[in-house]
Amino acid sequence: KKYVYYFGDGKAEGTAQMKDLLGGKGAGLAEMTNLGIPVPSGFTITTEACREYFKQGKRFPNGMWEEVLTHLKRVEKSMGCKFGDPKNPLLVSVRSGAKFSMPGMMDTVLNLGLNDDTLKGLIDKTNNERFAYDTYRRFITMFGSIVTDIDRKKFEDLLDKVKEKKGVKLDTELDAKDFKAIVKKYKELYKKETGKEFPSDPYEQLKMAIKAVFDSWYGDRAVTYRKLHGIPDDLGTACNIVAMVYGNMGENSGTGVGFTRNPSTGEKRFFAEFLPNAQGEDVVAGIRTPLKIEELKKRMPKIYAQLEKICEKLEKHYRDMLDIEFTIQEGKLYMLQTRVGKRTAAAAIKIAVDMVNEKLIDKKTALLRIEPEQLNQLLHPTIDSTANVKVIAKGLPASPGAAVGRVVFSAQDAEEWAEKGERVILVRNETSPEDIGGMAAAQGILTARGGMTSHAAVVGRGMGKCCVVGCGAININEEEKYFTVSDIKVKEGDYITLNGTTGEVILGEAPLVMPKLPQEFYTIMKWSEEISRLQVRANADTPKDARVARDFGATGIGLCRTEHMFFDAERIKAFREMIVSDTVEQRRKALDKIKPYQKEDFIGIFKEMKGLPVTIRLLDPPLHEFLPKTEEEIEGLSNDMGVSVRRIKAKIKSLEEFNPMLGHRGCRLGITYPEVYEMQVRAIMEAACELAKKKIKVIPEIMIPLVAHVNELKIMKDLTVRTAEEVMKAYNVKIKYSVGTMIELARAAITADQIAQEAEFFSFGTNDLTQSVYGLSRDDAGKFLPFYIDHKIIDEDPFISIDTEGVGQIMEIAVKRGRKTNKNLKLGICGEHGGDPASIEFCHKIGLNYVSCSPYRVPIAKLAAAHAKL
Ligand code: PEP
Ligand code: MG
Description:
The chain is an alpha/beta fold. The chain has 33 helices and 34 strands.
């Protein structure tokens, strides 16, 4: 069994394809080495070794350590120095690196191999005592905090005390003697905290560090991150051991991180930041705010040119945008890492389209590069540019979009407030991986420190969350929970607005609007349409929703819930009147009030949809959602109807159901009160006829809800056809309309062969279908489903993603049986699942004709439909 893979001297045992085994970082280092890019020598311990390690109760698998020692020899040879050698010591970094990048979630130890003896070698070698002691104290800090869990703050406090005593502010103002004293103090701290001497044997150090890297896989931060990003828990991490190079050896040294293209906008230009005379951790941790890469071009033009060439080479090779980490040691460039770069949705679509134009990738690859869910970011609102807002500070625009919320100063508060339904903005000096839960819960993130590649920026972009970083103008008082900008004081709970596109911080709640979409968005939509088989329709109940849907390229309305047309203070009155009516006369009177509203809406929707099919569902109100509740509502109703409050109350009582979702709703209402559905069909057909007379094309599809038995559909269809024919006769026009049904009860799905004989189309109402097949109440499941998911009893909420094993099978049965008796049966889905990429893939697989989802999810569904085909 081979647990260790070498890279160095222009050749590597691994390749980019071996991410599963070597992790992203290890695979990237191997590939760069093979490409002839300068990388310090090193080796990768596989993820398999990590998995074995846990399997064997945290013990290195047999033979692994011996392999490590053998490969360490190769690194020594390649670098011309020896691990533990007091004259010419090799120092290494020990870094985690899983298959999927988890920025800052796991641990790294730098400068490993230092002890009092090798330190002398380092001093001789570099002729720089200050540098050597600085390196030593950094090593003890990292080792102590990561390998033995000593609170990092304790090290920092000691450092601060020395600075205070000396009357200086910056690390750079400390000299060799100061660092020497600090090293001594650090070692004492180590002993006090662990009860042991700081390990001086470099091999002992290495063993402990590798264990710590493996252990970090199950660290709290990593576990949370994986949960948020759906990364499996059993992959394990690789461990990379790489010869150290130093960016902190003077002004011709430095370190930086960057992207081959702009990760925020996608602009095709090398985008990076660097810090002269610094080590990598300074940049990534956001401790010092780095300089723009243009500064490197000024200071070291040759290195800059070399970097640009490397970026070009990497992009050509990987055919993707990459992120890179590099260090310059005394004028020599080393690449420390590369991997496919995280990017915003805007950048993702621009890069994908640009790369097709540059002939780097084909259209299919371009589509697959964009996660459907990512498009959500683009559909987020931005700040209305015409609004008068009070900008109080400006930071770096780390992740675009806008966020409005109340200020909180800790991740924990962010989570707690968000749980109570508050929108919050998390404000921190800098974020650390512990903050991840709070960042996810917040609308936006604001930090006082850190650059475009700091933790907050990288994680914010990954989450598609509005984020402004490095906003130096704000002074945060975490203890008393406020921040100030000059003379303005913003307290916990105050509203602010962030503009992640400009970096502006605005006092109060700014008005938001929908952004203008970039041209590349429409290109991606066009390519998606070309490729996919599934059509995408929208669920829309108003002309306004219909317009949004059409603008996003919906090919029709898949569900217009007519009862939703009454969510309006005026209209609901007439609707309630209808519900509580005792007699047909009373009901007809109420219906006469309702009909004009309906007709007006149908006309508006038909017009917006310009000849595309519109599926209108006849009334399906679970009655409990519509009954009057307050005394005031009841009194109003009593006045309007001229019926006593007592009688109305009695009626409400009689309408109460124990199980309203399985109660007197859907076609059961239409069958017992046919005048209701008749009115609706009239409104639909009159609207259609009036438009047809004006030569406006309309395709109404009338849909009967909650059918369980074919006879229900038969009766309702007869009523619909009879009424429609009457209306068309009266208007003297012929309109092509169709009648179909929802499939949302188990019985309907199973008897689909009978039902299909009466229906021209089926639309799967997977909300109710999940409820009835799974036996889960739509209204109450929220009380225990999260527990099920947390405890891995089920993987996912079946109301969000179709339960393919259960509900999905019933759908397949319905498709097969339906098509058997009706070859021309049109099939769609209009439950909430119609906008969920995984469910869309399933709908494609079982051969539906279309999915229908909320208007703002139409672009996501279109891309997902293309992905399903690819
Ligand atoms: C459904 O049940 O999936 C559906 C679309 O109808 P509603 O959500 O209105 O019950
Ligand atoms: Mg339903």
